[in-house]
Each structure stands twice: as C-alpha cells, then as structure tokens.
Write a structure and sequence with these properties.
The complex is a heterodimer of chains A (about 425) and B (about 325). Chain A has about 425 residues and is an alpha/beta fold. Chain A has one domain: Thiolase/Chalcone synthase (Peroxisomal Thiolase, Chain A, domain 1), CATH 3.40.47.10. In chain A, about 35% of the residues lie in helices and about 20% in strands. Chain A is built from 13 helices and 16 strands. Chain A starts with about 25 loop residues before the first strand and ends with a strand. Helix content of chain B is about 35%, strand content about 25%. In chain B, strand 1 and strand 2 form a beta hairpin. The termini of chain B are close together. At the A-B interface, helix 4, helix 5, helix 6, strand 6 and helix 7 of A face helix 4, helix 5, helix 6, strand 6 and helix 7 of B.
C-alpha cells in the first residue's frame, strides 16, 4: 500500500474512484413513478388525461399578466394538504409551490417503489428555476423597499434550487448525495439520463430522479419578452402554431438496477435502455435549422440502447409549438427515422399541459411509461392542420397500440439536447 | 491508481487574470484589498472583491456569442481557455470530444436583477436580451459555442461542493468513454444583489467574483492525478453541517505532515484538523461559492504539479448544501 492510500477500506461510497466494473453494464429499471401536472395529481388521473388528449389551460391566476401578450398557462390546483412526511410544522409552513409539487411527485414514486430509507440514496433533479417565486419576492423587496430586510434571509435560503432537494431529503430521511442539473428545458431528461448512467456503471444500486418547475412571473415575462408565448393554447406541430404555453409540475422516478429490483421482488414499471445528449452551438435560444444536435441526441440514445429507429414504436416529441422548435425537431425526426418515418407515431404532450421547462423531460418520461404500460398512444387533440414538414404520423385521436419501445426528446435553451429510450417490461 | 490526470488549470479571480496571479496572492497570504459596492437605496456600502479589468482585450470577446453575454461568461471563457491550453484547437476541429460542466450557485444574477427590475416597471417591454442570459446554462452554452463543442454539456447548480461533484462526474464521463477530455468550471459573478444576500447570512462576508477551471483527461503526461472525491454529505435535519463535515473529514483520511489541505474556511466556519500545511483561499480572495471551490481545487492541483507537495486535499463545507472533499496526488505517489 502506497504512502498516500487514504480512504478507509470500507469506504465504498466515494464519488470517485468508481467501483470496479462487473463487465457488462447493469440494466436499469423503473419501480416507482410520481407525477403532478395541470391535469391533476397522480399516475391514474394523468394517464386518463394523456390518453384522452385532455387539455388543462386557463387564465393565469398566480400573478398579474394583464400587461403581457399571453395570458394563459397550465396551472396546477395544489392540494391543501401534503402527505405525511418527517417535515416539521415549521418546515411545512415555509414550503412554496415548486417544493410542494416535488414532494407530491416524490411521495407517489416512493410509495410505489416500496423503498426504505435504509441506505444512501443519490437524488438527481432537474430544474430551471427552483423556487423562483421567492427569488422574485426577494428582488422586489430589495429593489422597491431597500431598507426592509424582513424575511429576506428566508427568501434567499428557500429560493435556491438546492433547498427543495434538501427539503425532500428531510421529508423522507434521505441522505443523498444531491445533484441538480440545470440544462434549461432539457434538465429533467438530463437528470434521468445522469441517474441512468450512475446505475448502469455501478456507482449506485438505486437513484431517485426527476424534475420540477413552478410557474413564476419572471419566467412567464421572459418567454413573453422573447415572443415565444402563444396568446391561445399551444398547438404543437400545427401549421398555424403560434408559440408555446407554459405549464408547471413535477415528476419523479425511482430507478434501480435490475438485480436490486429482482432481489426485493419489486414490481417493474419499465426499463430505461438508452440516453443520448448533444449540444447545439447555433444560438443561445434558437436551434440549428436542420436540428443537428436533436438528431445527434436521438442517434446517440438509440446507439446506447442498441436499437434502430425501426424498433421505436412512439416518439414523445419536445414539440413546444414554437415555429422554430417544431420545424427543426421535425427535420431531425424525419432524418433520424429514415424509411420508417411515414408510419412513426409522434405526439407532443405539451398540447395538454404546456411546457413544464425543467420538469418537462421528467413528466414526458412518465408519459412514455404510461404508454408502455397501458399500450396506448397520447394524442394531440388541438391539432388541426399538421405542418407539412412533419413526414411522421402525428397522433390526433386516442389510440390503442402495441408499444414496446418509446423515445422521448427534450431540448433546451443553450443548446441542451437530450433523448431517452424506454422499453416495456414484460 | 487513478487514470484521471489534471492536464490544465485556469483562473480568473480578484487577484487577476490567470493562475499565476491567484497563486501569487495565496503565497502572500494577505487578504486582497476590498472595494465598496453601492447598494441602491441604502446608505451603507457592501465590501466586495471584483475581478480587476483585464490588462489586454481578450481575443475571444470577438466571438458573436459574447457580444451581449454576462461578465460571468467572459470569466468562464478565460479560465477555460487557460486550462485547455493547446487542446483548444483539437476541440474546435472536433478531434477531441470535450465534456463541459459549469457549476454555479447564484448564476447570472446581474441580468436576472436587471430583467426583473424591468418586469416590475413594465412587463410588456422587458428586454429579451437580458432574459436569455438569466438561464443557468447560458455560460456553459457560450463556452461550448466558442469552442465549437457539440459534446455533452451540463450545468450543475448547488453550493460550493457542486464543483467537486462535477470533478467526479467528469471522471465518470472519461472512464465510460463519453468524452475524451472534460472541462469543469466553477463561476460566480458580482452584483450588489448577491453580495447583499450573502451578507444576510454572515455579516463579515466579502463577496468575490471570478471563475476557476480544471481540465481532465485520461492520457498520462500530466504530473497530477485526481486521486479521489469523497461522498457528498448533505446538510439535513438528521445530519447537520458539523456532522456532515465530520463524515467528509473521516473519508478524507488523516493526512500527512507534508500534504497540504486547501480548505473552505472563513473566519467562523467549521474548522477541520489537519497535520500539515493549510491554505484557506476564501480568507484571501473572498467568498465566491462555486468559483471558490474551483480555486481550491486548482491550487491544490497546482501545488502537486509544481512539486511543492506530494499530495493536496481539498475540503469543502459548503454554504448550505453539502460537505465534500477531494484529493490530488503526484502521479508517482498514487500507487495502489
């Protein structure tokens, strides 16, 4: 042993170096899923809503939008009470909107998984803004009442993205570590992808992962300033689409190695088999017109999964309904799918719940799981005239189908592109 | 033996542009001069340590992406280019797949403040140019664009400890073949709004700005290896800050008299025992969250590279999330 050997022999929980590989990568399965969107709380309600192509848009009530171009969003009616956790009354009193969504989704996933907090649990979350409504309050008071410091420290402490993650640990007695990825609208997909890789390479046996984001004025005004928001509910891939509609929500997944799940006889909801990520250097807020990075992400995810596009039965598109995104994503899907494109089922579930930013990739992962479990495809009931650039089969009506493999796309500002591939568990 | 080598480091700090300026400031072991920052509507001023102006105009500023980018992106670029050294050309031609991880706690606060101030005044005319730069991953995006890198690119948000988490993540990408090289950057920018917020938690805080970068590859040819990163121990109700620091310290080992500890100490923080020499960059440079831990790591790596210590440890007891440590060793000493 060298002079500088330093980690205790029983220290198998370090982040690096990684444990010796067993040879073949571990298979990674999903044993719990939790979701909350404007369609409602929980798997059952959301599955019914997505299957029917329900839409959940309404006038924004959370903040003043009277001077914005757009005035609608997909707001959640949050339940008054949270499920029982280990949080103190003091902690519960300080919870804000995004954290409550995160806790609700995590609680559902946790219960379904049957996990116990008896060993370290890595938590990987995606978000774009944490509890930004508190950040706004802090900024507003600092700018408008600079001599009033009341509650400012609490606002600073609780708006940061790591705080909801720490509250999550307290609520369920998790010990982390916590990793928070903020890759704009791909954050949720990147978080799941990172969790998948953590398990596949043997760095953990289970990971809690997902994404969350709540509506707030700063983000709403930001997308409105970019003229990216539609004044009417969004219509992804429609020839007459005129922008995105914001939503809010959270989705959480319990991932574990197949060996870990089998050892405890867990019910398996599905399997993650591929993750691809690529970066688009074209522009900070606009994708490359040919969708090169989107294509690269899809190709990488399929290569990772060891499948060809012909084996993908459904694509849950990023499909924001902005003119640029949908055109470039369509171009990318057309090229990626090749000869299979004309009968490839594609939809964007943002048509029903809006764009959930950092939560989008996680929510859409759960939608893919629902489709794989239920053997149906989620339609876009808002679609009137498909953009002719879409050579794939856009889903307009509720459809029962054989779905073995589903691919989910998530693309974000800054050029963050991520694709995940899921397989039905049978 | 670790196969992850430190092939470059870069820094932009209140000490100046480049690692030599930071190294010199730490060797002097005297706190850098403090400047006073105005806080609108308040009589008092906030003590801060900004990055001094660059002595020359940086060539990279000619890139269209950086025309309107926040100052944090400029610092990230400068630190990254210094760390990458001659490998910049290989990245730009696509010969080297570069994984990028940018870590920050506060992000682009200046544009966030300016954008929200405009929203409060008149939301219908708030500037879209500001908004785009408020997104946490804007600096990572600009960096990738300037380097023409389409490989994997993450922005980790969290307290100081996220930089060490990112080192472990980068090492994983290298080992799994996802990237040929990985650049890990920690950065924060200076604005009265964040200096004011930091002061709410510790009156003596002198907020600083800047960036630090560490460039990792699996190719031998560098003198320093990333030997280990401890687990991350979050601060929770059942594990307070002191307990988390203690668990991290127990993983960090006892240390030896000739090893250096680069710690995250400030005047009133958790102090860890250490038998050898100790460096506390925050007491010299100031508090800069993710940039601070980047500076700790790159200075630890630098001490080993320069042959001034056979090994150097980094301990980070972060602002509000986690305790985590790392160890850098001379490659010859990192034997199984």
């Amino acid at each position: 042993m060298g002079q500088f050997q330093w980690l205790p022999a029983n220290s198998d929980r370090v982040l690096f170096p990684t444990p010796k590989k067993s040879g073949t990568p571990h298979r990674v399965v999903i044993t719990g899923a939790g979701i909350i969107t404007a369609l409602g709380g929980g798997w059952k309600t959301n599955a019914a809503g997505f299957r029917a192509g329900s839409r959940a848009f309404r006038p924004v009530s959370l903040f003043d939008v009277s001077r914005q171009r757009a005035k609608i969003a997909a707001e959640i009616d949050l339940p008054e009470d949270l499920p029982a956790t280990r949080l103190s009354a003091n902690q519960l009193r300080r919870l804000n909107r995004a954290t409550r969504m995160l806790l609700l989704a995590a609680h559902e996933a946790w219960r379904q998984s049957g996990w116990q907090p008896d060993e370290p649990l890595p938590v990987v979350l995606g978000t774009t803004s944490g509890e930004m409504s508190l950040g706004q309050e802090y900024l507003s008071q600092a700018l408008c009442a600079p001599n009033d410091f009341k509650c400012q420290a609490t606002r600073v402490a609780y708006y940061q993205v790591q705080r909801p993650a720490l509250v999550l640990c307290d609520a369920f007695d998790f010990q982390g570590p916590l990793t928070i990825i903020s890759n704009a609208c791909a954050s949720g997909a990147n978080a799941i992808g990172h969790a998948f890789e953590t398990l596949r390479h043997g760095r953990a046996s289970r990971v809690l992962t997902g994404g969350y984001d709540a509506l707030c004025q700063l983000t709403f005004a930001g997308f409105d300033s970019l003229q990216a928001l539609a004044p009417t509910p969004c219509r992804p891939f429609d020839a007459q689409r005129n922008g995105l509609t914001l939503g809010e929500g959270a989705a959480m997944l319990t991932l574990e190695t197949l060996a870990h799940a089998k050892k405890r006889n867990a019910e398996i909801l599905g399997e993650i088999i591929g993750y691809g990520a690529a970066n688009d250097t074209h522009h900070l807020t606009q994708p490359h017109p040919e969708g090169r990075a989107a294509l690269a992400a899809m190709n990488a995810a399929c290569a990772d999964a060891g499948i060809a596009p012909e084996q993908v039965d459904y694509v849950n598109a990023h499909g924001t309904a902005t003119p640029q995104n949908d055109a470039t994503e369509s171009a990318a899907i057309n090229r990626w799918a090749g000869g299979r494109v004309s009968n490839l089922p594609v939809s964007s579930t943002k048509a029903g719940i809006g764009h959930l930013l950092g939560a989008a990739g996680a929510v859409e992962a759960v939608v893919c799981l629902m489709a794989l479990r239920g053997q149906w495809l989620p339609p876009e009931s808002s679609l009137a005239t498909a953009d002719p650039v879409c050579r794939f089969q856009l889903l307009r009506q509720p459809t029962d189908a054989r779905v073995e493999v589903a691919l989910s796309n998530s693309f974000g500002f800054g050029g963050a592109n991520a694709s995940l591939v899921f397989r039905r568990w049978s | 033996m670790s196969a992850v080598f430190i092939h470059g480091i870069g820094a932009v700090s209140p000490a100046g542009w480049g690692v030599p300026a930071l190294r010199a400031a730490l060797e002097k072991n005297l706190p850098l001069p403090v400047q006073l920052c105005e806080r609108p509507g308040w009589e008092k001023k906030l003590p801060v340590r900004p990055v001094p102006p660059s002595p020359t105009r940086m060539e990279f500023l000619a890139h269209p992406r950086l025309r309107r980018a926040g100052i944090m992106s400029q610092h990230v670029m400068a630190a990254a280019l210094e760390a990458l050294g001659p490998d910049v050309a290989s990245v730009q031609t696509g010969a080297l797949r570069l994984g990028i991880i940018v870590c920050t706690m506060a992000g682009g606060v200046t544009y966030s403040r300016r954008f929200y101030a405009e929203v409060l005044q008149e939301p219908s005319t708030a500037s879209p140019l500001f908004f785009a730069e408020t997104v946490f991953n804007a600096p990572a995006s600009h960096l990738a664009a300037c380097l023409n890198s389409s490989s994997i690119n993450y922005t980790l948000v969290g307290d100081d400890g996220s930089f060490l988490q990112a080192l472990a993540l980068a090492a994983g990408w290298l080992e799994s073949g996802r990237a040929d090289g990985c650049l890990v950057v920690g950065a924060e920018e200076l604005d009265w709004i964040v200096a004011d917020a930091a002061r709410l938690f510790r009156r003596s805080t002198v907020y600083a700005a800047g960036a630090g970068a560490v460039y990792l590859k699996m190719h031998p040819g560098a003198r320093t290896v990333l030997s280990a990163v401890t687990d991350s121990f979050p601060f929770t109700t059942s594990q307070n800050r002191t307990a988390a620091a203690g668990r991290m310290r127990s993983q960090l080992g006892h240390g030896t008299a000739n090893e250096v500890l680069c710690d995250s100490e400030t005047a009133d923080s958790v102090r860890l025992d250490w038998p050898g020499r100790r460096l506390s960059p925050k007491t010299i440079v100031g508090e800069s969250f993710a940039a601070s831990s980047a500076w700790q790591c790159l200075i630890a790596s630098d001490l080993v590279r320069e042959g001034r210590a056979p090994g150097a440890c980094v301990s980070v007891v972060g602002a509000n999330q986690q305790a985590i440590g790392a160890r850098f060793l001379n490659a010859e000493n990192d034997q199984p």
